Amino acid sequence: DALNLQRLFIEKKREFISNDNVQNLVCELLICLFIQTFNNEDQDGQYVSDSFSELPEQAENEPFDIVYTFDLIRQNLDQRRYRRLDVFQNDLFKVFERARKLRPTHSKVYQDSIKLQKYYIRLRDEICQHGSLLRSPALLFNEDRLQQELVRERSEKDLMSNTNSQNSISPAKSSDSDEHKVSPTILTSPIEKSSLSKGQTYYLGDFVYIEPNDETNEPLIVCIESFGHKNNEDYLSGLQFVRPNETYHTPTHKFLRQEVFLTQTIEYIPMNKIQGLCYVLHAKDYFKYQPMIDDQMSFQDQDVYVCESRYNIKTKVFKKIKSWNIPENKRVKLIQRDIPLENIRISSILVNNNLVHRSSTTDNELISIDIIEK
Fold first, then answer.
1. CATH 1.20.920.10-classified regions of the chain
2. Helices (DSSP H) in the chain: which residue ranges?
3. How far apart are CA 84 and CA 77, in angstroms?
4. From first to last of its 374 residues, what are the pLDDT tens digits of the chain?
């Protein structure tokens, strides 16, 4: 909303104030380009740039010396640091390129980066009137050039993936069982791709409890996106969910029981940190269905969570999720509940105090909870 108001203000100012300063006009053009690109929506009305919030603020394998993000571009625009279209475009393209380098080709953020970059190119040509209004070397980068860059990027990505795969296979094959000991590499199928920890197999799309750094804290909740092998240790990367007591909110804010919030991607979690399985359902399914794994085991109620919003750890802002883009897990099926759950929201104090823990409770503890609720 703030960006849209800023764009509207610039347009209105141009109507009432005659400004012959070319540099100011260029700055305003760049701001409009950024705002319209950042606020581009798909056919479902979802902001395409939303998926970029899943990228880590700082990755171990950062592709550039500077971490290029939309926030960085916006700050530079606000400080009027961009005076040329080609410099602005180069930084913006590095935001898209960073997303593609950090994520596999089948991921949503990878595809969204291509959509946004194509949208930007068309919008740039339209606003600059194909060079009639503003001439710049930036206009030489068209969709054909983008396609060539994508082919080059994918070739480099495939080469790196093949190299990692070869390095992860042990050359020694002393027994039949050893022949199958291949370190995990990222694949697209959640059932075919798995990793073993403490005698249990975990798959892409599984929701797991992760041992917290502080013993006084509750286990982290993570949805597995990929497996890997590093420094002779198996690890996973995935989407983290946080509980209400881990967010910054007003005392009057109300939450659903068992509510969690999608936050950021965390990487390189050792597999031996997994403490067990859990499951997170989108709000539209949580009240009507319950998950069952491998057609035989139902999750305990305290291990099933509901999510309807994303929480930005950096800005401390909640935002409703328009599209549930979680890795598919074919071994989990949703079974309709005999009696749908009630959609009840309670204050944050009660949620935090009466949060249902995985450990069992005594009868006396249950009575105390009932009294507090009443």
1. 2-163
2. 2-16, 22-38, 70-78, 85-102, 108-127, 143-168, 283-286, 348-353, 363-373
3. 11
4. 887 888 788 788 877 776 667 888 899 899 999 999 999 998 878 889 998 988 888 887 888 888 999 999 999 999 999 999 999 999 999 999 999 999 888 888 999 999 999 999 999 999 999 988 889 999 999 999 999 999 888 888 777 766 655 554 444 333 343 333 333 333 333 333 678 887 889 999 999 999 998 877 899 999 999 998 888 889 999 999 999 999 988 878 889 999 999 998 888 899 999 999 999 999 999 999 999 988 777 899 999 999 999 998 888 888 888 888 888 888 899 999 999 999 988 887 655 544 443 333 333 333 333 333 32
Rounded-to-integer distance, Cα 351 and Cα 252, Å: 12
- DSSP sequence for 25-39: HHHHHHHHHHHHHHT
Buried b (16+ CB within 10 A) or exposed e, 13-39: eeeeeeeeeeeeebbbbbbbbbbbbbe
Say if CB 49 and CB 40 are below 8 A apart. yes
- 319 has which bridge partners? 310
80: left (phi over 0), alpha (psi -120 to 50) or beta: left
Class of domain 2-163: mainly alpha
Question: Quick one: which of 305, 306, 239 has its CA closest to 266?
Answer: 239
In CATH, the number for domain 182-373 is 2.30.30.490
